[in-house]
Amino acid sequence: MMVNRDCLALHMPRAIISARMIRDEVGLAPVRRQVGRFPKGLKSSEAPRIAKRLGSISGGRVLDVATGQGGFIDTLMNTLKDYESFIGIDNCTSYDSVEEMREGRVHFRGRPVEFLEMNGEDMGFESGSFDTVCISYALHHLDDVDAVLTEMRRVLRPGGRFIIQELYCDGDKTEAQRVDELEHEWCTKIDSLQGITHNTAFTRYRLMDFANGLGLKDLEVFDSDRPMDCLFCERNQLCEDPKNQAIFHDSIKRIDETYDRIKDYPDPEVRNRIKEEGEMIKKAIARSGSAATSYLFIIGTG
Ligand SMILES: C[S@@+](CC[C@H](N)C(=O)[O-])C[C@H]1O[C@@H](n2cnc3c(N)ncnc32)[C@H](O)[C@@H]1O
After folding, report:
1. What is the pLDDT of residue 27?
2. What is the pLDDT at residue 24?
3. Is residue 278 part of a domain?
4. Is residue 221 assigned to a domain?
5. Which of the ends of the chain has fewer CB neighbours closer than 10 A, N or C?
6. Mean pLDDT value across residues 49-77
7. Residue 70 class from Cβ within 10 Å (0-12 exposed, 13-18 middle, 19+ buried)?
8. What is the pLDDT of residue 200?
9. Contact 8, 180 (CB under 8 A)
10. Helix (H, G, I), strand (E, B) or coil at 165
11. Nearest atom (ligand 1) to Cα of 93
12. Are 278 and 255 in contact, with CB atoms under 8 Å apart?
């Protein structure tokens, strides 16, 4: 099972059922009897509609920027109408991302997926060499968003697809989603202490600003409060109740593991403050539960 490093995305256990099952659920193939129906909250979210839209797109040669373990490559493999190959690039500036790329290579062994250590700000690809370029849950991890998006635009062929999936910080959220955002903020502090770029999430307006600046045609924007990966998760029923015990235990374990990353940080005051904040977040999870925050999914044509 692949596990995403980003705190928000950790609510998405990547227990893949099968591409065929999701395709059936979203109406891309005749429904098979053994496929359970999606739980209500997931079904009424935009996630099935995004998956359905992706099911009408031929990916061709796909570039996934800031790929981490390639979690989004899994999502696209399961949802795109078809594809030729994937290249996932990551600048691998932290130990975690080096390890994640290694895990990604193992996970996709035998499939048409290549991982390259490369900075998204300066890619070693010919202009127009990809049919699809995408970036998922990574804009707020970049030092220079404009530089990366400009490079992605350069390597996209005319008529190709540009895909952005990114969480946002504004808008109406449930209490459980607010708790998840608190945890995310806390993680950004820990990453910063370790010298890893991890910014606060952008607003929807700012995300649209980035997308509008790319000069794409036919921008389509989806706004979902449920991750697409839930469509493939055997435990998706659990997330209907953000206070359920499994989510609670996973969250507590995750907070402890995240804190462990700075347990030897030289300044005890900073360490203690971070620890106290972590304990407060645990209490908030006990009180309100935790649920992955909402995100925009943007598709445009080059
Ligand atoms: C949250 S992770 C990506 C998650 C992944 N895309 C997914 O959807 O599962 C963010 C990644 O951005 C990478 N990153 C940050 N700046 C980058 C840059 N300039 N070029 C390439 N990768 C970058 C980090 O190394 C990290 O692996």
Report:
1. 52
2. 54
3. no
4. yes
5. N
6. 97
7. buried
8. 95
9. yes
10. strand
11. 25
12. yes
| Residue 197 Cα to ligand 1 middle (Å) | 10
Residue 184 CB–ligand 1 contact under 6 Å: no
Q: Provide the token pair at 198.
A: 């991890």
Range of the domain at 93: 8-170+198-233+293-301
Per-residue pLDDT at 234: 85
Q: Give the whole-number percent of the chain exceeding pLDDT 70.
A: 88
Nearest CA to ligand 1 atom 27: 68
Question: Rounded to the nearest 10 degrees, how much is the dihedral formed by the CA atoms of 94, 99, 104, 109?
Answer: 140
- Is residue 43 situated within a structural domain? yes
C-beta 12 within 6 A of ligand 1: no
CATH code for the domain of 151: 3.40.50.150
Look at the chain and report how many structural domains it folds into: 1
91, part of any domain = yes
- Residues 209-218 have pLDDT tens digits of 999 999 999 9
Nearest CA to ligand 1 atom 16: 142
For the cut 80, the answer to whether the pLDDT of residue 79 exceeds it is yes
Question: Does the pLDDT at position 148 exceed 70?
Answer: yes
Nearest residue by C-alpha to atom 14 in ligand 1: 66
Distance between Cα 125 and ligand 1 center (Å): 18
